[in-house]
Amino acid sequence: MPAAPSKKLRTFVPLAVLGVAILLVSMVIFAPGRDRASKEEQATTTTSSPVSETPASTGKTGETTTAAADPAEPPAEEASTPPVEPASLEDLRLEEYPWSADDPNSVLGSLDDPDTWSMQLTFTRAGAGIVSIPFSNIWETAAARRQASMYFAAKKAGDASNHELPVAERYVLQNAEPISYLGLDGTTQYRTISIFSTQFITIGGKTKLDLTPPEVWKELGPGHFSSRILSKDGEPVATIERRFELGSGYDITLHQSITNHTKGAMQFRWTQYGPVSLYPDRARYMDQRRFRFGYEYSEEQDPGHVADVIAGGDMVQEMRDATDLEESRVFWPNPLSEEGDYTLSWFASTNRYFGLAVHPIITADGSGSRSLAPVVEKIGKWVQGGGSENPVVLSNLVSPLLTVPAGGTHDLSMGLFAGPLDREMLDDEEPYKVLNMRGLILFQMSAFCAICTFQWLADILVVVLAFLDHYVLFDWGLAIIGLVIIVRTLLHPITKKSQAGMQRFSRTMSKLKPQMEKINKKYADDPKRKQQEQMKLMREHGVNPLQMLGCLPMFLQMPIWIALYAVLYFAFELRQEPAFFGFFQLFWDWSFLADLSSPDHFFYEFETPKSFLLWNLTGINLLPIMLGALFFFQQKYMSPPTTTLTPEQESQQKIMRIMMVTLFPLMLYSAPSGLTLYILTSSSVGILEARHIRRQVDLEDGDAPVVGRPTAPKKKPKDPQARAYAKMLERRKAEAKQKKAKTYKKRK
What we know:
The chain is α+β, with helices and mostly antiparallel strands. It has 15 helices and 26 strands.
């Protein structure tokens, strides 16, 4: 018989199961992760901000308060990692220092000495970050640049009393961004995020300390900050130190570290703000702000990392894609980086002419690790003002789970780039050269037109233009005209052949017009037979329909126009560069062609750009109007074969001509004046070239009249002897003309 069940077991087992269930439910309810998750769900209804409400861990209480959820924070890997910190580190706070909103901000650099300093950094204790980054000698407008040049020249001469510096027109790369977010209590909170400021530090996965309040930082000097982590008993646990170092160029070194004051090892994860979306350009045609990546192959793919840092490819995020949080809330890693197993080297935010980037520290001789992975494992993103006209995209840099030994210091330093996308600087100077940060320059109008922009052709054009400006013509306007001459010379054989064929085709078809009309009447009800008879007639007279492709040179120039558009739009070298040695600016500081990278502003330049449909109008321009008039005039020198066209086809051709004259200049109204100058010059040269080709064709075809200025008919002499002499002269001239034509054909 089976043994009777034990009464003790029947009582103990249900109680044990019930106890385990109560324990699990308690862990779920009281665990801080649940509070974070619930608050994150609430926060996403207003904004995807990773900013946390200031917790009570700043010193007012000894409790550890969990911050609002961070979409860029990695999953809780700490739970799977055996903790190495002593139990006393579970309850931490940050030491507070006296602070007042009236305290002045410290600065590094200067705006009054552009020969020594390229920029000025203004700092704040809030997050130990940067308030603003203005440049010392880069300006919003060409007029402000000219005014500043005169001021600095007079200052060097010793007397600048008659000149004024346009301080309000100084270009500011970035300011601290005011943002709003949902706090832990569900109310909307406001905070200003300083540039490259700290966000928080997580100790062992148990305590998250908010580093954004100004009172938790002590300023030791300009751009030098310190913060101390204390135990619940007030004993120092760790010290965080940040120091910004500014050189004479556009690179900033951010020295930052954490020192462990305990007797045991300490694990932590560091989170700080990274590059933010820059301001759109004043004369923008489209929003050309982007987020860029530099990355390396993995150690398995490239042992020793011999290959260059990759800066091109498809890993480019346009501003409109970055604001789409449904697509992704993370910049890095992304599907492309995970598929290729790439290692992050640098990350940047760019606009039309400038960039803000984070990169590893490289020495002056180009040595050092090119990987940012030791300090940045993940780059999160969030959008402020999503769906508005001017959204702001912020990023935060999340470190791997790091360990600092007892009494040791862990380095978190990195390099920062804040400057213009200058081709020569990024090509030749370190650390940009070894990091291949030349890839920040992308001659591409937008992602959907990446192929049609012809990046390789744009790279060639900018080199040719720079060579003409630096070594041959010494002026960007003349360099553009020189480029026209070079391109027209290279295309002349094709242009001549196509236009000559088109002219002969038109002339032959004019002779065949009566026969064509007979065919049209005879086979009016049989289009297929009519086309066959027309082709037969054309073959009998040696007419090739391909001869009518006289627009081939224009199609060949279209890639050059598009690539040149991208070059003139993005090349920093042409920003605010005048044409023709600034000749027009000698007349009352006229704005006409004062900046080849913006419209010509012949009549007027607006102080504030005016938005109209797709255009951002900055002034009233002349060159696009002249271009339309020139296109109309150029059509007079074309000889289209209209003899075989149906009325419908002639109507379509007429519409195309009207569109060419009106829509093309309208599309170029807000384009860089350098591009309009190129097309205007090229079209003018094309008219002269077409006239020359027509003369040559007429000379080769001796039966055709020579195109020239019409002359009045000569009166016949009344004397019979004189009339006979005149006829003899005419006959001699005709024979000489035929002989000359035959000789020319033999040379051909």
